[in-house]
UniProtKB/TrEMBL annotation:
GO terms for cellular component: cytoplasm. The lineage of its organism: Bacteria, Pseudomonadati, Pseudomonadota, Gammaproteobacteria, Pseudomonadales. NCBIfam families: fdhD_narQ (TIGR00129). Required for formate dehydrogenase (FDH) activity. Acts as a sulfur carrier protein that transfers sulfur from IscS to the molybdenum cofactor prior to its insertion into FDH. This is Sulfur carrier protein FdhD. One of its GO terms (molecular function) is sulfur carrier activity. Keywords: Cytoplasm, Molybdenum cofactor biosynthesis, Transferase. HAMAP family: FdhD (MF_00187). It is found in: Cytoplasm. Belongs to the FdhD family. Its main location: cytoplasm. GO terms for biological process: Mo-molybdopterin cofactor biosynthetic process. It comes from the Bacteria.
Length: 283
């Protein structure tokens, strides 16, 4: 049966709000019109507050939200350590959800000092940033780490496709993954937003106590500066992107000593950071 029409603010069962929602009917535009059913990516608005004060509203895929809140808080620089989060309470129905986060007094004081409202959406990672200092922040320089063994990058695209269960059923979902020091994919997090997917991965890494410097993270999306910010703040030493990075991202990766690798479709992995020993000068 096709999925029934539901008002976005109406209360619906949790399974209908997960990362993929089944039973959407569609009509094909062709010489002989056809009809079918498919699954689509779920989406909800998540309002996040810290110690009772509203901070951000983000459009997210409604799975693994506690991981997202942890990763978002750390990746956006709202807290310095995952230990600053004391509790996360999720509530809400339908497409309107809430996360009430209790953080340490130290973190809350710092948050009030840099007070900002983020009107987030799935395509933009810097919505609501009010100053250049927030878009181009001071970041820690990572310890120098060895590059991942090339064998761990072998057929990585195919291995990623095999674990992207939600994307296979609905499409429209980005993924962020963690490959451990043995070359095995330990974690995969998916979301409609590429920033959200990385936030969820960072939150899962911290929750499970995995050393993010022993292995590497992978993003299936465009690798822009905001993703680099999140990776560096989380202590991730190597970041692999299935899409090419921007020039600014490469410059920052070299400055912060983040290993940055692009994995093209049909050629060898390209290491952009650290810089090659002999680099042609740019025009």
């Amino acid at each position: 049966m096709p999925r029934r029409a539901v008002c976005p603010t109406q209360a619906i069962i949790p399974s209908e709000l997960y990362a993929s929602v089944a039973g959407y009917a569609y009509a094909e535009l062709q010489g002989t019109p056809g009809m079918g059913q498919t699954s689509l990516a779920g989406e909800a608005a998540l309002a996040i507050s810290y110690n009772g004060i509203s901070q951000a509203v983000m459009m997210v895929s409604p799975g693994e939200l506690e991981d997202f809140v942890r990763g978002f808080s750390l990746g956006a620089g709202l807290i310095e350590s995952i230990d600053d989060i004391y509790d996360i309470q999720l509530s809400g129905t339908g497409a309107a959800l809430r996360a009430d986060v209790q953080i340490s007094s130290r973190a809350f004081w710092a948050l009030k000092q840099q007070r900002r409202q983020l009107a987030g959406n799935s395509g933009c990672g810097l919505c609501g940033v009010e100053a250049l200092e927030q878009a181009l922040p001071q970041l820690p320089v990572l310890p120098v780490s060895p590059l991942p063994p090339v064998a761990h990058l072998h057929e990585l695209r195919q291995r990623i496709a095999a674990v992207q269960h939600q994307a296979r059923s609905s499409g429209a979902l980005h993924a962020a993954l963690f490959v451990d020091s043995d070359g095995a994919i330990r974690l995969c997090r998916e979301d409609i937003g590429r920033h959200n997917a990385l936030d969820k991965l960072i939150g899962a890494l911290k929750r499970e106590g995995l050393d993010s410097s022993r292995g590497f993270a992978v993003v299936t999306s465009r690798c822009s500066l905001e993703l680099l910010h999140k990776a560096v703040r989380a202590g991730i030493s190597s970041l692999v992107s299935l899409s090419a990075p921007t020039a600014l991202t490469v410059d920052w990766a070299r400055c912060q000593q983040l290993n940055l690798i692009h994995l093209p479709h049909h050629s060898a992995p390209r290491v952009y950071s650290p810089a090659p020993a002999i680099e042609e000068s740019r025009p």
